[in-house]
Amino acid sequence: MHDRSLPASPNWYCSRCSDVSRSGLLGVGAKNIIFLIDVSASSCRVVGELAGHRDLVSGFSFCQHAGQGHICVSSSNDGSIRFWDSDNKVLIKEHAAHQTPVAAVHWSQVDKNLVVSGDEKGVVVCHWFNTGDTASFFPEPRTIFCLTCSPHTWSTVAVGYKDGMIVLIDLSKKGEVIHRLRGHDDEIHSLAWSWLVGEDALYSRPEDSEASSGAPAGDGKGCYLASGSKDQTVRIWSSAKGKSVMTLKLPYVKKRGSAVDPGVKERLWLHVHWPRGRPTQLVSSCFSGELVMWDLTRTGKQRWTLFGTSSEGQNHNRIVFNMSSVLLQDDRELLISTSMDREIKCWDLASLDCCWTLPTLGGFVYALTFSPVGTGCLALGVGDNMIRVWNTLTTQNQYDTRSFWQGIKSKVTALAWHPKKEGSLSFGTDDGKVGIYEVFSNKPPQISSSYHRKTVYTLAWGPPVPPMSFGAAGGKQSFSLYSCAGEGTILQHDPSRLSGEASDIDKLIRDTNSIKHKLSPHTDLSWKPDGKVVAIGNEDGCIEVYQAPSLKLLCSIQQHHKIINTLRWHHDHSSPPELHCLLASGSSNAIVYVHDLRSIIENPPESPVVLTEPHRRLCGHTAKITGMAWSPHHDARLVTTSYDGTAQVWDVLQEEALSNYRGHIGYLLCVDWSPVDPDVIWTGGKDFTLQEWRVSKQEFTKPPKGKKMMELKDKMKSTPKQKKKNKKPPGAGGAAPLEMNGEPVIGQKAAKEQELSEDEEDEVSSTNSSVPTATSETQRKSSAAIKSKDKTDLLKKKKPRSMLPISTSMDHRPKEDLLQDCINLASVKHSKAPPAGCVPGQGEHIHLGLFSDRQALYRMFEAEEEAHVEAGHFDSVVYLRLWSGDLEGALQLATERGELNDHLLSVAPMAGFEVWSRTVEAFVKQLCLQEQYLKAASHLLSVNKLYEAVDLLRSHKLYREAIALVKARLPADDPVLKELYTCWAAVLEKDGHFSAAAKCYLAAGASFDAAKVIARKSDVSSLRTAASLARISGEVALAQSLALRCAKDLAAALDWVGAGEVLSSQESLLVHRLHLCVAELLAAMLADPQVESQSCVSSHPWVSRGERDICLQDRVRDVWEQQFGVSQKSEGHRSVGALLQELKSAESPTPTPNVPLRQVQLYSSLHMTRAVLSWLMDDEGQLMKELWKTVAWFRDAGHPSVSAELCRLLFPDADVRVFSRKHPKTLDHTEEEAKAAATSLQAFISYQHLYEHWWRSSTRITNGSAADSSPADELKEEVVNGVISESEESVCPATRRFDKLDFDASLLLSERHAACQAIQRSVKEVQERLAAMVVQHSRAQEGKLDSGEKETDGPTQISTTTESSDSQRSADAGRRPEDQDTLLSLSSKMSEHQKQLADLPDTIKMFPHPDVVECCLVLLHVSKASPSVPESLQQEAKDLLRKYATSPAVLKASQQFLT
Question: Closest Cα to residue 1078, out of 1103, 1042, 1097?
Fold first, then answer.
């Protein structure tokens, strides 16, 4: 599977979620996956996973029978039972007998085909593996927590319930209850049978005589059963008598003399395990993660022995959920435990010491990064609120990790090691916190006092910029810490003073570049390793590159048009300088773009440059890009991770996919290359795992598409999307939830906000509600009877609670007491001396206060208030105070209790304005807690707090209502209104409502931002609207930019009329209209079914007009003059000089073979436009150079036939000097470059004519053979590869007829170009030898590392040298041992060739000729049977062949001419 990996954390609160097979294979349920871990060796290894459940795995059990030890069974919250083959990791069968989540499952130790499961409703199901039959029983209407099959009798099963009941049932009698074991008063967490038959082992103790009374000791029936409960006790039961024979109370184990935390009792999970072969020893978990071994025969208090006492830190530090043991072949007995501390530990039961610890992960792996200083030190940022630091190079402990949790308290979403300081690790969290850990000390982290409002996306160390760079020479640190977060800001933190305020770099960017408009929210940043420039990615897909330290904008890369997720600069160590300025970027598009910014960084432009074309495109992923890393061992090798669930390794310069890793389930989030092994990569993702894998061992080279992608998506869909259910954890009522590890499985990027933290989980799990235990009679009532009772209760009217309950109750006393009350009341009313002790409204005479004076009534009210407070009826207290006239006291109490209402607020003005205003404010806070924001704002208006009402609505994102309120109440120029529009626009823009956001920006007077936000959609209609809006608003530069983008999109779709209409709205874009005119004419004249597969959407009528024999440039000039009024005499904005100057700024990248043909036509037509403008300017030198580039674009982009057709359109007479017939123009060049360009162009025309001449004269081509490729191309292949033999040449000479050469062939035999081409071939040959030497060396190293794999892997190795020619193989074979090339000799050869190339004139390299050696061969073939080739020309060709023909293929082809 993979070399090493950290799996997901085992699920919590499950009675049996892990088990070990007889062979030492551990299965652990984590989320909805079962991880398989080999524990039989000295250290563990994850060997595979079983994926398929749609919800959390709640139980897992191996078959312990010989021959079937690889079969296992699992249960899940999805209600299914699945049988698996752990060897092949495949599903065998699935049973769906349960209707509700399954709580427990166990494979019988007696019957190899029997599996028993129980669900939350109390249903027990038997599954027979061999037949597939099932049988259901319903022994008790209670929630099942655990069950276990007897190891001695196949039909006996023990079932533990949530309310503390344990039931033994007989499967052979349809689930009949044998015994009900009562004694525990809380949840049964675990049950374990003794492996010894009979009940003799424990009766030797005198303490247990009471338990054994009534039955002769050692009767041989039954066996012992151990149970662990949340009531903190372990009980040993007699299955024969159905009674408890021993009770063990858990000990409190104090750590380092500290007191026991009182909260640990609430968090207890008590698991028991009875090891095989130890009838008197029992293992159980304890309060804080300790494991204890009980000696059941020992007397006194100390019956237990603690595990892991030989050294510090062996035990778990949180509660243990599962234990399972295995006896290995070397007689070692191991115990495996899983815990809430997210560690799996292995114990030696002989010594009770920990053998090894496997860390696990309880959340998404958001970030991983290797330390640049501490080699092999890997840091992980995980969604379980912890950082892991793993020393991956240690030899003793393969999983040597440390966890850091102090001061984090949220998901760790970003990490960055300090570039120089060892052990200094910065981290960012989901709640916006930024801090620095010193991982080699035990100190808590330093936390920055400046928090982000949203998730931290990226951290980066870089040189300080103002204001922190001021005074840097005075002892300040050379690095600042930069953090980018979800709200779109980048903060600069001073690592030496994190308590100080961080600075927002946007202010510096605005000041340096004089920017007035709103900056796009930032989403990523990356400093170039040398610290000279920083690249910042934005939410709108734009990447901006700034120069440090002033952050001057150098260029803007407008390529992605979607949110930038990751940026990475190429490393600058041991790589060629031309690679140091490569910037790779990934966004929510699936394409990775790589830009070469060397020219911009080395020669910074005066004004920012806009780049719209990448250096390289890496296409293959099918979903958004989430992470990337350059290989520190290779040049221009990149690995990327994506939401498509795969990691992809690329050769960037070749744009080639090298290796694709598909080991994760779900999307990937982060990646890094091993700093020590060039073949190893580490990835982490949504499946809670970190995986190490090798590039060379992967089966696939490209990401999946089509059917493969569907299969991968199905695999990813097996991860559950949980619905929120009103379930409560153990102790809170309802069934026990099978938590996966503190984080639900949720897709998409927003998963950071949707995960549950471990702290939240623990808090929920520790809650406890006192639910009265129902009697057995009540439990036996049918559900129908209970439902009918509930129905009648609903129909009854609830009697209102009395305001004076004490005095009311006094009126329900015996008759004699009531009569005495009358006597006492009469005495009080009419006698001057009332009876002794009779005070109305107080004590036993409280009820008389209602019938006496006011003071007595007040005394009665006080007593009633005390009773209401004690009962929690504070609303009644408020009304009593209100009635007694204490209005302020009533309002104060209601305020404190949060029980204000409309009625109380309506009477509040009676207490004065100050009390009323205070009450309104309190009521507003109460309404906000109840999410009644509109009502709260309306109440603020009642006390004239308009601005507070607006702030309240805005803070709860009720922007529409807030704006309506401001416009109705405040002046139109109030700044609050503009602020509201801007805030609302930002929210709408983030949610994708671009048109609504634009309206807000327009209302706020921000026309620039309105146009920008509409353009974010990037479709044609949006761009057209944005351009019109910018033009109307006076944003001329933006309007031009958007109109140009829109026109290019339309032109790419062949909608020429639409593109022209967009540009015609702005006169300043006339030159681009001319460009599109040339592009349309060029596309029409080159139109061919083989070239253009799609028909044109729309075209102008002048495209079809005109004679076909007119050359292209004449047609262009005529259309320009007739349609656009552009000629030699035009003036103003139509003047040729101004148009040419404006067109020079247009971008034209270097041709590469991967550019689509339509794009090639646009680039070529750009040079054609410049050529015609130069013609109109009478600039013959520039004209010829642009014409050369026009033709060269098609040739260099891999379309030679189109290039040849274009030459025929430009020069119908095959003479580059005759440029125009309609406007007579003969070119006579004096400038050296123009002359070289003309010669090169003429040479390529002659080259095509040479092949056409040979083709017309040849009789070797059969009908229809040139259907797919030109004849010249076929002949070229045969000539160069030496296919045409002498015998073939002489076939039927009488049938050949050669015309006279109609072109100047001497131009093709340029010795200067032949020399240049020979040097270039030598350079290529040396490069191939160097590459072969590197491959040979790497194979030799692999053979040393693993000689066993060399034989098997050798034949399947694919050489990295794609063009290993015959010349090299034959040269290597024929070379003597002492002549073999060395690295030094090849390097010196390369230097010599490079010097020779440098000495050649630039014009020869800038304007190349066709291959001179190839032309010599063709010319000699033609001359073989034709007198048309002069002898002098033939001799010149032979001389050139003798001098420059070096490759074996060419030598073979030329032998017949040179001998």
Answer: 1103
